[in-house]
Design goal:
33% of the residues lie in helices and 19% in strands. By secondary structure, it is α/β, with parallel strands linked by helices. It has one domain (3-138): 3-Layer(aba) Sandwich (Rossmann fold), CATH 3.40.50.9100.
Length: 139
Amino acid sequence: MAKILIINGPNLNLLGQRERGIYGERTFEDYLRELRERFPGITLDYYQSNVEGEIVNALHAAQDVYDGVVLNAGGYTHTSVAIADAVGGISTPVVEVHISCILAREEFRHVSLLAPKCKGSVMGFGLDSYRLGIEAILG
């Protein structure tokens, strides 16, 4: 059975509450239940942190435990060399996901430090970006 870890970064614990026009009205926990129903033969674990170093630690811990990581690093996407280095430092494939299309937002969001280290990137499909990321890992 495949094991995939979903990691959400800063402020994604507020899904369903913050900027609903961009991020929607559903909590991630509600959507995670749907993902688990959609992929019954796969272990989907979930981790969220607002702290950069904790995300780095979670990526390191995923090595040799998970078949892939779906990572939405939130604002750290554009600023964190440490998270990019952690993605590049593990052999576990990582797919970068974003709920919104970061290329259609503020200019500072147009650059992802993570993308060059990831297997691929999915953005702009709302919460469904996570499903697409899982499917990319499963191949």
